[in-house]
Amino acid sequence: MLYGISKGISHNDKLCLTDFFLRHLRSRFRSSNAAYLKQQRHVVVGSKSFSILKSSTPRKAASIKVNTLNGLNHSHSYQIRTMKTLNFGGTKETVYERSDWPKEKFQEFFKNDTIAVIGYGPQGSGQSLNARDNGLNIIVGLREGGRSWNEALADGWVPGKTLFPIEEALKKGTIILNLLSDAAQKELWPKFVPHLTKGKTLYFSHGFSIVYKNETNVIPPKEIDVIMVAPKGSGRTVRSLFLDGRGINSSIAIFQDVSGKAKDTAVALGIAIGSGYLYETTFEREVFSDLVGERGVLMGAIQGLFLAQYEVLRSRGHTPSEAFNETVEEATQSLYPLIGANGMDWMYAACSTTAQRGALDWYKPFHDATKPVFEKLYEAVANGSETRRVLEKNSSPTYREELEKELEEIRESELWKSGKTVRSLRPENK
User: Can you tell me which residues the record assigns to a coiled coil (predicted)?
Assistant: First the structure.
């Protein structure tokens, strides 16, 4: 929220300003007793700032720390940047919410920018469509005539107006969203460099290319801002949650802040592309946790566990439908949504005493058996060997053919053929 004051800042003005913000805080946070440790307002006056801290209960007095308001004798804009410091299991972290950057605020912030989205995979399409729907000036850069180009046409992007060949979009963009695949980012980086001129911002949704620069050769010029907004989910989810009026959670990181406003740009763009809230990380922490998660409980480990349990049940005489229902269907259709909504402690407390006792007894052996695998996985990510494998495999001229063979092996397995039949029996699929 912006507050304009178009007169000199006298001592009395300072007192009035202080009183104004304190009253504003009391009214905003009157009902906030326990949820947050504190809420902090940063007030920016020209190039100088002060902050207002609100304690955790409305009964405690707010304190104000003035860095400087001296020497100001002309019109200034006062910007309140909201941050919440929350307790995550005993560790305090700062988060930013959609209410901090309402649509009119980020539209004003980006009113002079052309935001060029390079790439139209799940993230490129989801983020660009959301930002377009939010009223920002978005253009898309793609290989002309390719599959993604045709998908963009179907989504309403207009050649010569909002859809351009990659290098033309790079030239036009003041903020460039590099949403190509990791392998394509390495391949096409030489096309980016001439257009990354002073004053521009380079944006990523994954820290891969920056962190593994020795493998990718992606090294941004020193005179530009480099930021990241990393949605914690697929691009399709970014779009579907936005259309549902909800929002995905995302992380933000700053690699280079030349302008002094890189964090504001990251937070504003994060909200504009559909995030419900944002938390802070670094490029390295993002890529390490992301790669471990994808290979672990998000996809790799889940398939391994599903398959192992299914195989044991089948080998002991259970039918395919029973084995699939007890392994996958009950998990994805019943338990996982409840865990997501309420937590594992709630799930354990809400199940039958038989299930409860077994789960409490057996999660520890599973933890002990799998933790060494996760340690090995993390080390492979941290030392770069996993990255080298990804780039080597994904850059192979026979990549798509080899990928199809691997996917076919999963698709044609009894586990997932049974799953196809089970899914067809759901009432909503009739």
Answer: none
Q: What domains sit in the chain, N to C, each tagged with a CATH number?
A: 2-88 (no CATH), 103-282 (3.40.50.720), 296-429 (1.10.1040.10)
Mapped onto helix, strand or coil, the DSSP state of residue 154 is helix
Residues 255-266 have a mean pLDDT of: 97
Could you tell me which residues are annotated as the binding site?
A: 290, 294, 326, 330, 352
pLDDT at 395: 85
Binding residues for substrate: 352
Least confident residue range of 51-65, 277-291, 402-416: 51-65
Q: String of b and e for 86-95 (b: at least 16 CB within 10 Å)? A: beeeeeeeeb
Overall pTM surpassing 0.85 (yes/no): no
Q: Which two tokens stand for residue 223?
A: 């005179």
Q: 280-309 pLDDT, tens per residue?
A: 999 999 999 999 999 999 999 999 999 999
Single-letter residue type at 213: K
The answer to whether 73 and 8 have CB atoms below 8 angstroms apart is: yes
Tell me, yes or no, if 206 is annotated catalytic. Answer: yes
Q: What DSSP line would sit under 182-224, residue for residue?
A: HHHHHHHHHHHGGG--TT-EEEESSSHHHHTHHHH-----TTS
- What is the per-residue pLDDT across 228-242, written as a single tens digit (0 to 9) for each? 999 998 899 999 999
